[in-house]
């Protein structure tokens, strides 16, 4: 099932995406667009909502505005240096341990919404990534439990302000400018993607292919990531894991091909969908 948050004539809603459009769902929640609450209730509501999705009247996607699938994730964690080709282009050593940083909640952005090139930097980069959405979280998750703890998957763009990122050994500021984590366009529930490690992943800038790989090339796979993070923190419904980017980032090009106002970045993952965000000046 593909679950999206969207705005239509009757306000913000959660809907199920079909080939012919999107069907608004009667979630029974206090807030009609509260995706985290729906994820928490999913084991009890999924059968009813599946019927609604199949039987309801669809509205063409062109008539709605898609929003970030989760408005306020409790955590946005992202792993660095997790594809071999990306490690090679950075000139850095393959990490022996997982390299994690956080993107703050202010980075959330929609799958079609503008992304700002900040006035304090001209070194803005793209990073297409598979995003895992936590369902039933927990602490000290075992490897055999990990697949069942993922609710679903999105496409993400870990937009990075490289000069701010590299000013210090801590990457949070360079990764946390406003709106620098567009993701979506919806959540594909994990039952539709039982193995997330066989998906083609691409990024195009103004139609030019920049990144092209497959999630089978992850150094630490999605299950490894859940196990490792949950040793340190309790994962909760709606938390996001940006699982790494392949080679082809702007910083590695000679000369670097930084993003500028007017550029359009398209991030695609097989079986999920695509983001397409225009970049604008702050």
Count of runs of 4 or more consecutive helical residues: 4
Our Rg estimate from Cα atoms comes to 18 Å
CATH class of the largest domain, named Alpha Beta
Into how many domains do the coordinates divide?
2
CATH topology of the largest domain: Fumarylacetoacetate hydrolase, domain 2
Q: Beta-strand percentage?
A: 25-35%
Distance between the termini: 36 Å
pLDDT < 50 stretches: none
Largest sheet descriptor: 11 strands, mixed
String of helices and strands: EEEHEEHEEEEEEEHEEEHEEE
Q: Report helical residue fraction.
A: 10-25%
Mean pLDDT: 96
The second-level CATH architecture of the largest domain is Alpha-Beta Complex
Classification by helices and strands: alpha+beta
The CATH superfamily of the largest domain is identified as Fumarylacetoacetase-like, C-terminal domain
**Regarding quaternary structure, how should these chains be classified?**
single chain
Q: Which shape, going by the Cα principal axes?
A: globular
Number of strands: 18
